[in-house]
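so im writing up the methods section and need the AcrR family transcriptional regulator record in one place, dumping it here so i stop losing it
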Amino acid sequence: MSPRTQATKQKLFDATLRLAGSKGMVGLTVDEIAAEAGVAKGTVYYNFGSKDGLIDALLRYGVDLLADRLRRADEVEELVGAALSYFGDYPAFAQLLVSELWRTPGQWHETLTLLRDDIISIIKEHMQRLTDEGRMPDGVLAGTASAALFGTLLVVALDWQVFQPQRTHEEVRDSVMLLVRGLGKKS
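--- predicted struct ---
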């Protein structure tokens, strides 16, 4: 992909997230996205085929960025910190992800299922390590703990951004880690 094409797509992603963050996805039009990005309406269609194609690509792009951050984490605390930092950097994406993940059945359900599975598998590696080390409570499956941690991180990040913006990243991370450490202790 040429640098110009990538820059145009990035402008469209950023514009879509700004609009989604302020007015939501329902009723958002290609005209509004193009105007916000400062491009012609045809640019959206040329690059993505439709608004749905743009949203699909945006979801994939956003989750790829999150996955890259999570893959760099060596320990659970780093993983929690990376996820919270990501959602702090991209609060509108977190909002979009939460709203679309829980919509049943959503327009982007198939895409989100694949993306969710990618994130869960990264988290599951950490949870499996705790299980293998005997640090997971009896009866807690690594897959269940992974989904629970992912959901916790999404909701906590949104709560932080919307209702408790005065809290620091460290305070929020430490609060989540108190919960996670409780999961990591053998009963």
